[in-house]
Amino acid sequence: MSRRPYRLGRSLTGLGLFATQPIKKKSRIAEYTGRRLGIDAALKAEKSGNRYLYEVNSKITIDGARHGNIARYFNHSCNPNCDTFIRNKRVFIRTLRNIKPEEELTYDYGRDYLKNVIGLNNCLCSRCRKRRKKHAAELREKRARKKARLASASLKGMASVKGKTKKTKTKKTKSKKTAKKRGGKS
Ligand SMILES: [Zn+2]
């Protein structure tokens, strides 16, 4: 068997697989291997927190938690460069496009996994991080605009308060004058 065109390395979520050389689109690069579990054993494994279960069909689930299963190190991405396919009840991983060296190899674990295990807002894939960064920048901008709006409104407010004070002063002066006049008359 030829050497794997990728290596195990540090990723944002722990460990991941990174291409060590260019890999052509539609290359079969790994098999998801492990013990084959029936329905009951699969449910039990899921309940005990095993995150490396791959459901082949309604009857067979592969327990890929063993270290010998290199495919367990593929991380999830919402914008993956690989995907999985099943042939003769075996699970393989293939590339979806040409891959450059040092690119992390990922596949989409599916909506259920994202929702129930990772959490929709906790995904650390490049697409989700970019989306969150953009959203945070937009929020910051929005807040800055609001602050500017409030500042200019309070400046205007201060101007109108000054105007009012002037008017009141004039009134007071007038009333003082009137009082003086009155006082003069009496
Ligand atoms: Zn994501």
Arithmetic mean pLDDT? 87
CATH topology category name of the largest domain? Beta-clip-like
**End-to-end separation:** 120 Å
Low-confidence stretches: 173-179
User: Helix amount, in percent?
Assistant: 40-55%
Shape: elongated
Compute the number of structural domains.
Answer: 2
Ions and ligands: zinc ion
Order of helices and strands: EEEEHEEEEEEHH
Radius of gyration: 34 Å
Structure description:
With 186 residues, the protein is of the alpha+beta class. It has 2 domains: 6-119, Beta-clip-like (Beta Complex); 125-160. 41% of the residues lie in helices and 24% in strands. A hairpin with a 2-residue loop joins strand 8 (82-87) and strand 9 (90-95). The structure holds zinc ion. Residues 78, 123, 125, 127-128 line the site of zinc ion.
Summarize the structure.
The protein has 186 residues and is an alpha+beta fold. It has helices at 39-47, 111-118, 126-185; strands at 6-11, 14-19, 28-32, 35-37, 53-55, 61-63, 75-76, 82-87, 90-95, 104-107.
Give the topology.
Elements: E1 6-11, E2 14-19, E3 28-32, E4 35-37, H1 39-47, E5 53-55, E6 61-63, E7 75-76, E8 82-87, E9 90-95, E10 104-107, H2 111-118, H3 126-185
Parallel strand pairs: 7-10
Antiparallel strand pairs: 1-2, 2-10, 3-9, 4-6, 5-6, 8-9
The structure holds zinc ion.
The site of zinc ion has 5 residues, from helix 3.
